[in-house]
Design a protein that fits this description.
The chain contains four helices and nine strands. By secondary structure, the chain is of the alpha+beta class. The strands form two sheets. It has a seven-stranded antiparallel sheet. A two-stranded antiparallel sheet has the order 3-6. A hairpin with a 5-residue loop joins strand 4 (47-50) and strand 5.
């Protein structure tokens, strides 16, 4: 079992412009948390949405089945409820409905108390030219770092 779990969504920062961040708890079953503690989860294709009651759920999050689980094992791609304050939920719901923004998970981690938490972000989708700009900036930074490294050596 890994001691430091930090499962990232690398696509989120490339596909979306991050506007606001929140940390939310997740409602998990016993086999789900055990599988996450072994690092067997993925949030690359996941997103968050509200149901009819105003509760926030993470959809399409992949948590592999626990290897030692019996017939009580969980479903790998089930919708999992996120826990936030009522004020935060209302604010997010309002922003999603009025502005057309989306809520994307950034990373999944386990805090000091052993609870699974997820950093989520209120985000706006990037256009194609914004993505090209991001790639160009990344390449420029990499080239600059190479020049600095060769100059210092």
């Amino acid at each position: 079992m890994q001691t430091n779990i930090n499962i990232k969504n690398k696509k989120a920062r490339f596909e979306y412009e991050i506007l606001d961040k929140y940390t939310a708890g997740i409602v998990l079953s016993g086999t789900e948390i055990k599988s996450i503690r072994y690092g067997r989860a993925s949030i690359t294709e996941s997103f968050c949405e509200f149901n009819d009651k105003g509760e926030l759920f993470v959809i399409n999050m992949q948590v592999d089945e626990y290897s030692h689980g019996s017939h009580y094992n969980h479903l790998p791609k089930a919708a999992r409820k996120l826990l936030l304050n009522k004020r935060e939920l209302k604010k997010l719901d309002r922003e999603v409905k009025t502005s057309g923004l989306t809520i994307v998970p950034l990373n999944l981690f386990i805090n000091e108390k052993g609870f699974a938490k997820m950093n989520i972000a209120l985000a706006k989708g990037k256009k194609l030219y914004d993505k090209r700009e991001t790639i160009k900036d990344r390449d420029n930074k990499r080239d600059l770092a190479r020049v600095k490294k060769s100059f210092n050596s």
